Amino acid sequence: MTYAIIDILDKDKIDFSEIFQTSEETLRESIDGTEFVIKYDLRPSFISNGSVTPNQELTHAEVLELMSTEVWTNEIIIEL
Q1: What is the DSSP code string of 9-42?
Q2: Of 51, 14, 17, which Cα lies nearest the Cα of 35?
Q3: Mean pLDDT (the chain, rounded)
Q4: Rg of the chain's alpha carbons, rounded to an integer?
Q5: Is 2 helix (H, G, I), strand (E, B) or coil?
Q6: CA-CA distance, 31 to 50, in Å (whole number)?
Q7: pLDDT tier at 78 (50, 70, 90 boundaries)?
Q8: What is the C-alpha end-to-end distance of the chain, expressed in Å?
Q9: Lower CB density within 10 Å: C or N end of the chain?
């Protein structure tokens, strides 16, 4: 499985039939809304043909690490 971080401006270029997410509603966006992540087994044509250039391509372990950063996850403060 490969995970790609894509610029939000390229969202309309995504062919959802080529990735595991099924629609825009299922995409995970960064907290600031500038990027989103997609996952796939076979490299999608929109990346292969240069229509979309990922900011990063990551393994599962790498994306888990990235998703735990403040760029992708809001800090939850629990007051006791």
Answers
A1: GGGGG--GGGSS--SGGGPEEPTTSSEEEEEESS
A2: 14
A3: 94
A4: 13
A5: strand
A6: 26
A7: low
A8: 40
A9: C
Q: In what order do the strands lie in the sheet with 2-7?
A: 28-29, 35-40, 2-7, 56-58
Cα–Cα distance for residue pair 77/10, rounded to 1 Å: 33
Is this prediction's pTM over 0.85?
yes
User: What's CA 3's distance to the chain center, in Å?
Assistant: 7
Which H helix or E strand runs over 65?
Answer: helix 60-67
Q: Could you give the CA distance from residue 27 to residue 50 in angstroms, rounded to a whole number?
A: 21
Burial 64-73 (b: 16+ CB within 10 A, else e): eebeeeeebe
Nearest to 4 by CA among 22, 27, 23, 33: 27
Q: What integer pLDDT is reported at residue 63 of this predicted model?
A: 97
